[in-house]
Amino acid sequence: MITDFPPTPEHPDQISGLLEVYRSLIDDREAWYVSTPLTTGKLFREISSQHPTSQSELEALLAELVIEPNRRQAEQFVRKLRSKTRYVINPAAVHDIEGWTQGDYRYFWGLVIEQFSECVVFRDGWHLSSGCSWEFLVAIRAGVITLDESLAPLGVKDGVLLLRRSLTKESATNSEFLRRVLSSLREMTEKPHA
Q: Which pTM was predicted?
């Protein structure tokens, strides 16, 4: 599998236009962003282990048994969080954009985190998702506050430990991408502080 790391967009003009919409609504870095597994995560691992089917059969089950339940759980979590802060960005609420690749989504949401997010809340199982793992790396690089689902601090060393554990599981989805994220995070923790 070819790994697009770091992600590169195929639709930069659309991404630029969407960022302008965010800019019209949110001042720099005042939003909370909720990073939640959508197509992977704990639910995907459970389903794929319970349904030892072919890849095509598993993909057919994906929307019903993984994506929609993940969206509903994210929506409930975001609703509660919106009672605590003014702006909460829920990327799980965005359905497919025609023609977009994983690289487009990862690139776009990375820019949203860098430009508009004061804080990123990582829902349980984020480390099993290549998209959420990318968002963790972006948030750490940008100096954005990172919290776990209980709103406790989630530091870079915590993230490294969780990602390392997820990669020791027998079949991490898109494990090459996760390895690249982990390697980048490790490099950050090994740099001497100036």
A: 0.89
